[in-house]
Design brief:
heterodimer; A: 376 residues; alpha+beta; OB fold (Dihydrolipoamide Acetyltransferase, E2P); 2 domains; six-stranded mixed β-sheet; 10 helices; 20 strands; 26% helix; B: 304 residues; mainly alpha; MetI-like fold; two-stranded antiparallel sheet; disordered C terminus
Chain lengths: 376, 304
């Protein structure tokens, strides 16, 4: 097993900076996800870990050893690709045995370990088949077996579930997680699917344009996004982000969103807003924290129903309020007419405030912080 | 939906008869199209069928009435198999062996050179890669015949005139651009993921090529081998130009001599030797055509 460290890690392809001066510590036995849109540098990180790419500058440590110049065969790494990348001319058995055979391990050891790992992944019935005779889910298991058969120090998963159908994805998700926990192998999962990252990983590093935007637990990522990018990237349906101007009226901070959209915050928020004095503020609130109420209230804004979408268990209601569009996720099938006037309650303890200029999260209030933490 | 359902239910029978008539008309049209296509193919194939038919009939008869109908069946024309037609000819089996040597030598050279070259062009980044690719394409477009005289000089300087080796090296060189492009297409079709997997699994670059890539481009190797073999076997102009020594004759020289014999041209002998020359290629082709067909599928995709 190993712990992994990136130190000022940078990778350039010509003039394109794919990974930009990253520091990262992956703990021993941890499952860490690199999450981000395509082109954010997550796969480049993975291939540097595998030894396929060499860093342009900075270091990668496996435990205390710098592995920058160690070729793939010198590292103890297992890799599963999105495409599975099975060797089509070999049987399942030969595929799984390949990493051992190439290292000239004794025949009986190879046989024992191939059968062991195949049994664990429940593909021991398929050892004589060719990859082309397998379903996507089975191929995925073979790829996982091939990566695990020589008990690597580090397991790398590149979008391992993207090619599976929805039902199988949910099953495999928990299976991989269980397997990883059982074997205790340090694992890096690369994905663009936030649900995959949030459900499987212990910690998630959200990446954009070669940089890590936030590294924290899935819950923290959801509750306390550190900047606008993470706030907009995490959560489905995405967080409402309303650009507003701040002002103070009767000693209470107000956010003015244009054309009559005005939202008053409790006085304590003044402290928080002070960090962005004179600048626009982005008010963020998740659709599930927006309540539709019948009458005006302290933290309510007026709006008009623009669109409703029944999602099954919940209904997504799109409300226009002044220049702003706010989406609310309400349980059940709500009887709302398009054009109907409603009041939306934005509960202050769920409000996220960002500096529109720096895109950073404004400092949380002690009060708001403790309240938010109290809510599961 | 609610509106269309009752309307459709009102006249289901009529709809059914219309579609039946349509189906019948469609079927007639299809049959007619088939008849036309086959008629066209038969007419265009007739000259070929006639030519080969004549060759076979002529080789097994002493004379032909009106130049087509065999009059007297005999194996006289096939006597060259056991004894040379005249003292002027070398041993037939040695000549056949030379022809095979030329074909096999060319095949081995083409496969041995193009397989690693195409891998490098498909997978490695190196200075001059694109220029190299463009150049091979130009070379392929270059008619080999224009190089006949200069190659003659080169072979003479290398002391390779009058030898099968000289001819198959020249032929292989001319074949290589095409072979490299075909092989590159096959390599291009293998995903990078597979190659990276092999590296991560602990293989060296060479092991990756040998154990993972090569088995996957086998159909490509099969196709260029077959092409090379057939080209080598049927080579005429280079053999006639570079080889005078009877010891190194191939079947092409043999037949050429029959045509250019000082006596009256013996069509019976010519037909028989021609059939003897064609037979191995035909047999070879019958057994390998399924591999040849793959060239267009695997060889042209992503060949940029």
């Amino acid at each position: 097993m190993a712990e992994i460290r990136f130190k000022n890690l940078t990778k350039k392809f010509g003039s394109v900076v794919a990974v930009d001066n990253i520091d990262l510590h992956i703990r021993d036995g941890e499952l860490l996800a690199l999450l981000g849109p395509s082109g954010c540098g997550k796969t480049t990180c993975l291939l540097m870990l595998a030894g396929i790419y060499k860093p342009t500058s900075g270091e990668i440590y496996f435990d205390d050893v710098v592995v920058n110049d160690v070729p793939p065969k010198g590292r103890s790494v297992g890799l599963v690709f999105q495409s599975y990348a099975l060797y089509p001319h070999m049987t399942v058995y030969e595929n799984i045995a390949f990493p051992l055979r190439i290292r000239r391990r004794p025949k009986d050891e190879i046989d024992r370990r191939v059968r062991e790992v195949a049994k664990m992944a429940q593909i021991d019935e398929l050892l004589d088949r060719k990859p082309s005779q397998l379903s996507g889910g089975q191929q995925q298991r073979v790829a996982l077996c091939r990566a695990l058969v020589r008990e690597p120090d580090l397991l790398l998963l590149d979008e391992p579930l993207s090619n599976l159908d929805a039902r199988l994805r949910i099953e495999t998700r928990s299976e991989i997680k269980r397997l990883q926990a059982e074997l205790g192998i340090t694992t890096v999962l690369v994905t663009h699917d936030q649900i995959e990252a949030m459900t499987m990983a212990e910690r998630v590093a959200v990446m954009r344009k070669g940089k890590i935007e936030q590294l924290s637990t899935p819950a923290e990522l959801y509750r306390r996004p550190e900047n606008l990018f993470v706030a907009s990237f995490i959560g489905d349906p995405p967080m409402n982000l309303l650009r507003t101007q701040q002002s103070v009226e009767n000693g209470r901070p107000r956010l003015n969103g244009g054309d009559g959209f005005v939202f008053s915050l409790p006085a304590e928020f003044e402290q928080s807003l002070a960090a962005a004095t004179g600048r626009d503020v982005v008010l963020g609130i998740r659709p599930e924290h927006v309540k539709i109420v019948g009458r005006p209230g302290e933290h309510a804004v007026r709006g008009e129903v623009f669109m409703t979408e029944l999602l099954g268990r919940d209904t997504l209601v799109d409300v226009r309020s002044g220049d702003q569009s706010i989406r609310a996720l309400v349980p059940g099938d709500v009887p709302l007419e398009i054009g109907e006037n409603v009041w939306l309650e934005l509960q202050p303890q769920y409000v996220h405030l960002f500096d529109a200029g720096t895109e950073a999260r404004l400092p949380d209030l002690d009060l708001a912080g403790s309240e938010a933490a109290a809510v599961p | 939906m609610a509106q269309t359902t009752p309307a459709a239910a009102g006249r289901p029978r009529q709809k059914f008869t219309i579609s039946e008539r349509l189906v019948a008309r469609e079927r007639r049209r299809k049959v007619l199209a088939h008849v036309l296509v086959y008629a066209f193919l038969v007419v265009t194939a007739l000259p070929l069928i006639f030519g080969y038919g004549w060759l076979v009939l002529n080789s097994f008869s002493e004379t032909l009435a009106f130049g087509v109908l065999p009059e007297k069946l005999s194996l006289k024309n096939w006597r060259f198999l056991v004894e040379p037609p005249s003292r002027f000819y070398p041993d037939l089996w040695r000549t056949t062996w030379n022809t095979a040597l030329l074909a096999i030598g060319m095949t081995v050279t083409v496969v041995a050179v193009s397989t690693p070259t195409a891998y490098a062009l498909s997978r490695l980044k190196f200075a001059g890669r694109n220029a190299f690719l463009a150049l091979t394409l130009v070379l392929h477009a270059f008619p080999g015949i224009t190089l006949l005289i200069s190659t003659y000089y080169v072979l003479r300087a290398l002391n390779l005139l009058n030898s099968i080796t000289g001819v198959f090296l020249v032929k292989a060189a001319l074949m290589l651009p095409l072979a490299i492009w075909v092989m590159k297409g096959f390599y291009d079709n293998i995903s990078w993921d597979v190659e990276m997997s092999a590296l991560v699994d602990g293989a060296t670059r060479f092991q990756t090529w040998y154990k993972v890539m090569l088995p996957q481009v086998m159909p490509g190797i099969a196709s260029i081998s077959i092409f090379s073999f057939i080209y080598g076997w049927s080579e005429y102009i280079y053999v006639i130009t570079f080889i005078q020594d009877k010891e190194s004759w191939t079947l092409a020289s043999y037949i050429n001599t029959i045509v250019g014999d000082f006596r009256a041209l013996d069509y019976g002998l010519l037909s028989a030797t021609a059939l003897f020359y064609i037979a191995p290629v035909l047999l070879f082709f019958i057994f390998t055509q399924k591999y040849l067909m793959r060239v267009t599928i695997g060889g042209t995709k992503g060949g940029s």
